[in-house]
From TrEMBL, chain A:
Highest taxon in the source lineage: Bacteria
Coiled-coil region(s): none
Keyword annotations: Cell membrane, Membrane, Transmembrane, Transmembrane helix, Transport
Localization per record: Cell membrane
UniProt name for this protein: Sugar ABC transporter permease
Residue stretches making up the ABC transmembrane type-1 domain: 92-304
Keyword Cell membrane: yes
Chief location bin: membrane
Record-stated family: Belongs to the binding-protein-dependent transport system permease family.
TrEMBL record, chain B:
Name of the protein in its database record: Carbohydrate ABC transporter permease
InterPro entries referenced in this protein's UniProt entry, alphabetically: MetI-like, MetI-like_sf
A Pfam entry, by short name: BPD_transp_1
PANTHER family on file: ABC TRANSPORTER PERMEASE PROTEIN MG189-RELATED-RELATED, LACTOSE TRANSPORT SYSTEM PERMEASE PROTEIN LACG
Entry-linked Gene3D superfamilies: MetI-like
Keywords on record: Cell membrane, Membrane, Transmembrane, Transmembrane helix, Transport
ABC transmembrane type-1 domain: residues covered: 70-260
Top-level taxonomy: Bacteria, Bacillati, Actinomycetota, Actinomycetes, Micrococcales
Sequence similarity: Belongs to the binding-protein-dependent transport system permease family.
Bilayer topology: Multi-pass membrane protein
Chain ranges passing through the membrane: 12-33, 70-93, 105-126, 138-157, 193-216, 236-260
């Protein structure tokens, strides 16, 4: 669940302020406009495709614009009231909960497998590759793979049948509103587990092997090693993953859109926004939803910085 | 203290994980080799009668327009990557090597922008793209891939810090101007960072669905993702053809992964953590 990786990544990406000693003297030589020329294209694109939309979005959210007509009427906070009072809109927050819970399963599994592979293992690279590879696969391909997997008489039903688990008729994995979100959240775990796993593994491998040797001499079990050596060392990256989980579970789009188009109670926040804007021409309302999502993500990021302040900027 | 049971448990759980990862893909591969009638009469776990029945692949390529999808993806990929590298490296050069009025503001703008998840602003971004007359052209995807990529810029800035400033100064003494220094000194030394950006961003562009789906609805502009997505309609009753389409999209990713494993792991770790 890393649809909004940028937000959380930024928290560790902020360049440390240039130390005064390193600060370059004002360049006397050369044309004074030079640095502006070098940075102009990047800033122009940033303004046009990030800041203009954000500002516009705040403005649209206060109007009843349909996205097409020349005029828009100012309606104050009506759209926001609608977001929080209309049942079909507010319900999409509950859909996020499935993905939110799933991302903790994902983090736990990633920690488990990363810990296993930190210690010497036969076919280590093979296992690492297989667990990571799904993360690289095209989202549409994943959607289709799992449509096939979950369809009646599909892969899942056949495997369950082969192992004599349950009996036909199997539930409609994507058709039954009680199960559909669980199935889709499962696909999400399948897709994103590999990234968490590789990040954790990378962090774990930077821990000195001597620590484990010393712990083992003292009779530590694997659980002790995990609890007292691994977990504290990779705390920042776990924190980052949890933040990504929260932000990511609110901005789920691809998998449910490709697989169910939001049918059977699987409409997510972003699917709802896109539908309101482009199918129902409710640009004002859709903008208000987008603003709400943006504010939630900003608050979550702020909390992360407050809880894990040491992560900011310089990393080893 | 490592008992045999623990060892067995470890390998069993790894094998189970591999099965979970591979079985859904494997059945797609076997199904893609079945004929229409064979697919209808056999279950997903049955092996295909012939391992060389590539008829579905031909259908996917011809009727599914996969070739056109690859061509569009390739065009967008090359232009966006070239643009991202040019814009990102020049901006990183200015930010890391110069002091200029407004530098703090520029840095602040980039930093705050990383907090804005792209999906949230699409509703308004759509209007901007439309106003610029880029809707339903390949340029919509190109400018969005170039314009909303701040991670690459940070990778370049991070890397440029490790390039000693003495090199710039030596070149200045030799009479080089800033453009020459950028082109002859900085750019060649940034190669590892450029490789990271090409891998991470290349994979992201190849896999992107949302942007082409929203901004390039015409059939003739179908990229890999949207072409495959359109399989759902006409081939809805022909899963064996859809499976072939999925495999066609998967193969380049698999080949790239096997060839560049180490760089890919490094790239994603760098992109996410550094």
């Amino acid at each position: 669940m890393t649809d909004v990786t940028d937000a959380a990544r930024a928290t560790t990406l902020e360049p440390a302020p240039t130390p005064p000693a390193r600060r370059r003297r004002r360049t006397g030589r050369g044309w004074p406009a030079t640095p502006y020329l070098f940075v102009a294209a990047a800033v122009a694109l940033l303004l046009v495709f990030t800041y203009v939309p954000v500002v516009n979005m705040f403005w649209y959210s206060l109007t009843d614009w349909d996205g097409l007509s020349k005029t828009k009427d100012f309606v104050g906070l009506d759209n926001y009231v609608e977001v929080f009072t209309r049942k079909d809109i507010f319900a999409v927050f509950f859909v996020s909960l499935y993905y939110f819970v799933a991302s903790f399963v994902q983090i736990a599994l990633a920690l488990y497998f990363a810990t296993l592979l930190t210690f010497s293992t036969r076919f280590r690279n093979f296992f690492k590759g297989v667990i990571f590879f799904p993360y690289l696969i095209n989202g549409v391909a994943i959607g289709l793979i799992f449509l096939f997997f979950f369809q009646p008489g599909g892969t899942l039903d056949s495997v369950l049948h082969a192992f004599h688990v349950g009996h036909a008729p199997y539930p409609l994995w994507l058709g039954d509103p009680d199960i559909a979100n669980v199935s889709l959240a499962g696909v999400s775990v399948w897709r994103y587990l590999g990234l968490n796993f590789v990040l954790f593994l990378g962090a774990m491998q930077s821990i000195s092997g001597e620590l484990y040797e010393a712990a083992e001499l003292d009779g530590a079990t694997r659980w002790h090693e995990f609890r007292y050596i691994i977990a504290p060392s990779i705390r920042p990256i776990i924190g980052l993953s949890v933040i990504l989980a929260i932000a990511g579970s609110l901005s789920v789009f691809e998998i449910p859109f490709i697989m169910t188009q939001g049918a059977n109670g699987t409409t997510t926040f972003v699917i709802k926004t896109v539908k309101l804007a482009f199918t129902f021409n409710k640009f004002g309302l859709a903008s208000a939803m987008a603003v709400v999502l943006l504010l939630i993500v900003l608050v979550v990021t702020a909390i992360q910085r407050w809880v894990f302040p040491d992560e900011k900027g310089g990393r080893p | 203290m490592r008992t045999a049971a623990a060892r067995t448990g470890k390998y069993v759980s790894l094998v189970v994980a591999c099965l979970f990862a591979l079985v859904p893909i494997a059945v797609i591969v076997t199904s893609s080799l079945k004929t229409d009638a064979e697919f209808a009469s056999t279950g997903p776990l049955t092996m295909p009668r012939s391992w060389t029945n590539f008829g579905n692949y031909v259908t996917a390529f011809t009727d599914g327009h996969m070739l056109r999808g690859f061509a569009n993806t390739a065009i967008i990929l090359v232009i966006s990557l070239a643009g991202t590298i040019l814009i990102g490296t020049t901006a990183a050069y200015a930010i890391d090597r110069f002091d200029f009025r407004g530098k703090k503001v520029v840095l602040g703008l980039f930093l705050v922008a990383t907090l804005v998840p792209g999906v949230t602003t699409q509703v308004a971004t759509f209007k901007v793209v439309d106003t610029l007359g880029l809707f339903d052209t390949r340029w919509s995807a190109v400018v969005l891939f170039m314009g909303t990529d701040i991670i690459s810029l940070y990778i370049f800035i991070q890397f440029m810090r490790s390039i000693p400033k003495d090199l710039d100064e030596a070149a200045t003494i030799d009479g080089a101007n800033h453009f020459t220094i950028y082109r002859k000194v900085i750019l060649p030394l940034l190669k590892p960072a450029i490789a990271t950006v090409v891998i991470v961003k290349g994979i992201a562009i190849y896999n992107e669905f949302y942007i082409p789906f929203l901004y390039m609805p015409s059939d003739r502009l179908g990229v890999i993702s949207t072409s495959l997505f359109r399989f759902k309609g006409p081939f809805g009753a022909h899963w064996e053809v859809i499976c072939a389409g999925v495999v066609i999209v998967l193969v380049p990713t698999l080949v790239l992964f096997l060839a560049l494993q180490r760089y890919i792991y490094n790239g994603f770790t760098t992109g996410a953590v550094k």
